[in-house]
Task: inverse folding
């Protein structure tokens, strides 16, 4: 157990639907990052939050949004889902006291 | 745009042999990470390399960083079956600035170790 908790582990949904992925960072970590892993795009950075504020954005579609709550957990919202959104979505967290990023076990999203 | 390229992308090795995975990147950065991923699983941190000339070793794996050449290597010594996995390098694109965590990953190297 890495200490980064992601739920759900698996999600199957239909095109056009909306889903929410949840991430709880390691205790004490203020930063949360979201990544998408797909066969055609590889691992891509989506977005970073630090203590509730958006810090950096990567290749995140406009249909996707995220937020970090006062208790530091984060949610990634994916809407108007398309088949191509099927992927493994990872959350990672980091500490300001050291280096490195700890990844959660991921949410496998399948859009049918 | 930062590019990170690994080679080889596929590596089939016999147990007991040595090999090196290369990771080239296209911008200045002094933070590079190596991760291992088993099929369908999470990314496990292997090494954090934070400066030019950094070398770290753990068991049969050794990683190094040459920031001037923009090159990192992951050397496998006397491979065993348990090392079979996908290995990723990742460059912290904003290293040295005020924000971190925008990791740019290589394509991954799928390593298979045969008896």
Result:
């Amino acid at each position: 157990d890495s200490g980064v908790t992601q739920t759900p582990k698996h999600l199957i949904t239909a095109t056009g639907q909306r889903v929410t992925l949840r991430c709880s960072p390691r205790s004490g970590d203020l930063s949360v990052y979201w990544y998408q892993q797909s066969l055609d795009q590889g691992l891509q950075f989506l977005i970073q939050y630090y203590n509730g504020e958006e810090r950096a954005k990567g290749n995140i579609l406009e249909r996707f949004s995220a937020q970090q709550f006062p208790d530091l957990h984060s949610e990634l919202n994916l809407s108007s889902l398309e088949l191509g959104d099927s992927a493994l979505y990872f959350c990672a967290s980091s500490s300001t006291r050291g280096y490195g990023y700890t990844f959660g076990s991921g949410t496998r999203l399948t859009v049918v | 745009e930062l590019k990170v390229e690994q080679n080889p992308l596929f590596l089939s090795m016999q147990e007991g042999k040595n090999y090196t995975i290369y990771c080239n990147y296209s911008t200045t950065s002094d933070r590079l990470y190596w991760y291992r991923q088993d099929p369908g699983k999470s990314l496990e941190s292997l090494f954090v390399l934070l400066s030019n000339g950094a070398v770290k070793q753990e068991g049969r794996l050794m990683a190094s960083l040459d920031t001037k050449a923009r090159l990192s290597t992951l050397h496998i010594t006397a491979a065993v079956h348990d090392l079979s996995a996908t290995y990723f390098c990742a460059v912290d694109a904003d290293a040295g600035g005020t924000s971190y965590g925008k990791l740019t990953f290589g394509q991954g190297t799928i390593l298979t170790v045969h008896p």
About this structure: The interface with chain A takes residues 31, 33, 35, 40-45, 48, 50, 88, 90, 94, 99-105, 107-108 of chain B (CB under 8 Å). Residues 52 and 67 of chain B are 5 Å apart (CA to CA).
